[in-house]
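Following the same procedure, backbone shapes were mapped to integers, as reproduced here:
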Amino acid sequence: MGSRDTGGRTGGIEEPLAALEREIVSCRRCPRLVDWREQAAAEPPRRFRGQEYWAKPIPGFGDPDGRILMVGLAPAAHGANRTGRVFTGDRAGDWLFASLHRTGIANQPESLRKGDGLSLRGAWISAVVRCAPPANRPTPGERDDCLPYLERELEAMTRLRVIVALGGFAWDGVLRALKTTGAVVPKPKPKFGHGAEAGIGGLLLIGCYHPSQQNTFTGRLTEPMTDAVFSRAVQASGGASV
């Protein structure tokens, strides 16, 4: 497995995810995103000057045998694009991992960098788009170019029971990926909302407002609201945390 940072237990499905990771980190499919992620690394804000940036696509992270999958929008230019691990090194990640710790999924309440000791129990974290997009807005074409990676994660995670979509973009991306993998998506298409639930192909999809500062600073998303979603995910997965 080389230096693969799984952050949890390993099992028979680890190799497909490890092979997928190798493909993801070498991807240069979307020229606009390649330029942006590399520009962010070349021109960092003052607080990150002197740090070495990852500046490549971001693979998933966590427990390869997980029964919970969390899906975000895309890496932050100076968060995961800097640290190389999804939701690591920015305020959204601070909020997310604190909640995952309170609900028994993460072993510690913060994630600063690779190798900081973080591990996830029974859960995997991913994103619809793997490169940092300008203004956090991927184009539909960039989304569609990246979706096959999420589809392959869904297929590899044979123990998966619950998906938590972090924001409306992730909710839509998950529905598209599930449909491509053969799941029957209900009509009309399930609507995103915080705490919204939809049963699709034997999986439970749960919506959660994205832990961006736009939501957390304004009070649209509170700690109890976030914890309620992940507590529900653990319960619905059959007790993913250990």
